[in-house]
Specification:
Blueprint lengths: L11 E7 L2 E10 L3 E6 L9 E5 L14 E13 L2 E10 L9 H7 L26 H4 L9 E7 L8 E6 L7 E2 L5 E2 L12 H4 L2 E2 L6 E2 L6 E2 L14 H9 L1 H8 L13 H24 L3 H24 L3 H18 L5 H18 L2 H18 L6 H18 L19
Antiparallel strand pairs: 1-2, 1-4, 2-3, 3-6, 4-5, 5-6, 7-8, 7-13, 9-10, 11-12
Helix pairs in contact: 6-7, 7-8, 8-9, 9-10, 9-11, 10-11
Length: about 425
């Protein structure tokens, strides 16, 4: 057994064959339907994967059963004090307890069934390309609404698996946007099923209630383990987050039914954004304490996005006072984080501050935004053709148009937050 596996409960050894590769693995849990195993390296999902259970190998004898055809359900990267390993879940395609030894493995596996050292690893698998990010290839879950696809994800905080991350399929809705750039879903394209995606945009962990609309804030359960940099360093905040689960549970207690599926009502949707804001603030506080400002930009603006979407949902139900209160909260957050922003982030934040100023008719905010966007080109000198330059030009022209017609963008004239005209 390799050193990196000594902390893991041992049950039975097996050989895993995937394509041209053959690796020794450790099965840590097994049923008649499938098993969980520890691997020393990731594998990709192949058409032909077999798992061969080994027995009586403590003395060097490698008696074994016939290979059992399996399907790879998920594979996740884990860490122990001795290093990294991979935890994979497999489903048996065909169960024959005599030929494949599944029944034997369930009833007779002991610690004596392990070799003292691992078999060599075939590193050819390292050359496998990442699996497709298309939702259909990732997901074993099927959405009720035909305009949605589902990606199964795992919670970074508590490790809960198979959480449905719902994605609005392309070319299904005909979204518009309000004056703050928040999408409004009012109608579907011909032949497509309608979905107000704002109601179910937030994915919520049903165990610890970590919530986010961002795919990168969860661990992807796919045919390949996520190997890129994690979206946040969870270790410093995970214990504190989990210790507060009971408080969040009280928040959702009255809204449990329907909160985790596709049929959220407006109250459940608003709660989902509150949970997402709590989750993002927890990460933001940790990162600001560690002075990781590069991440503050994304998370700070994401919090603003959540608040503005809450405002849109409330306004759509004619709850004007509550909607406008959320605008004021968004404004306060923008002003708090603005000093940390640069490039496209500062341009976007300044534009939003100005649009809120136009809505409430606050001259200071309007003038600050106008001056900032006009001077940005001279001070920052973005290069033509860059994303920064495009963002600056687009937001400057849009705000100029809104400023020239500022009467039409005031709360006195607008119908909700709908645009008075396209600009």
């Amino acid at each position: 057994m390799s050193n990196s596996h000594k902390q893991i409960r041992q049950k039975v050894a097996a050989l895993l064959k995937s394509g041209a590769t053959s690796n020794r693995i450790t099965i840590t849990d097994i049923t008649m339907r499938g098993c969980t195993a520890v691997l020393t390296a990731p594998i990709t999902e192949e058409e032909d994967i077999t798992l061969q259970i080994l027995k009586n190998i403590a003395n060097g004898k490698r008696d074994s059963f016939l290979p059992a055809p399996v399907s790879l359900d998920s594979i996740l990267k884990r860490k122990s004090r001795n290093g990294e390993f991979y935890e994979a879940k497999f489903s048996f395609r065909r169960v024959d307890s005599v030929e494949h030894g599944i029944s034997w493995a369930i009833n007779n596996a002991t610690a004596d069934d392990f070799l003292s050292s691992s078999l060599p690893i075939n590193h050819e698998q390292k050359n496998n390309k990442h699996a497709s990010t298309d939702a259909k290839s990732d997901s074993k879950l099927v959405a009720i609404n035909s305009s949605l696809s589902i990606l199964p994800v795992t919670c970074h905080m508590c490790g809960e698996q198979h959480i449905p991350f719902r994605v609005l399929s392309r070319r299904t809705m005909k979204p518009e946007s309000n004056i703050f750039g928040v999408n409004q879903y009012k109608s579907a394209l011909p032949g497509k099923e309608f979905c107000n995606y704002n109601l179910i945009r937030i994915t919520i962990c049903p165990i610890c209630y970590f919530a986010s609309s961002q795919f990168q804030d969860f661990i992807r359960e796919a045919s390949l383990i996520k190997t890129s940099e994690e979206p946040f360093h969870k270790e410093p905040i995970v214990d504190k987050w989990l210790s507060g689960s009971s408080k969040r549970e009280k928040l959702v207690e009255a809204y449990q039914q329907g909160l985790f599926d596709e049929n959220r009502n407006i109250k459940q949707a608003l709660l989902s954004y509150d949970l997402a804001i709590l989750s993002s603030n927890a990460i933001l506080k940790m990162q600001m304490a560690k002075q990781e400002r590069a991440r503050d930009y994304r998370i700070g603006l994401q919090i603003v996005s959540y608040i503005l979407t809450k405002a849109e949902l409330l306004m759509s139900k004619q709850k004007t006072s509550e909607a406008e209160n959320n605008l004021k909260i968004a404004l306060k957050k923008l002003q708090e984080i603005f000093i940390y922003l640069n490039n496209e982030s500062s341009i976007k934040a300044s534009y939003l501050i100005g649009m809120i100023g136009l809505y409430f008719e606050i001259p200071d905010l309007i003038n600050q935004t106008f001056n900032f966007l006009q001077q940005y080109g001279k001070q920052s000198k973005p290069r033509a053709g860059t994303e920064e330059y495009k963002a600056w030009q687009k937001n400057l022209e849009k705000f100029k148009t809104a400023y020239q017609e500022r009467e039409d963008f005031s709360r006195r004239r607008l119908k909700g937050f709908d645009k008075p005209f396209e600009f």
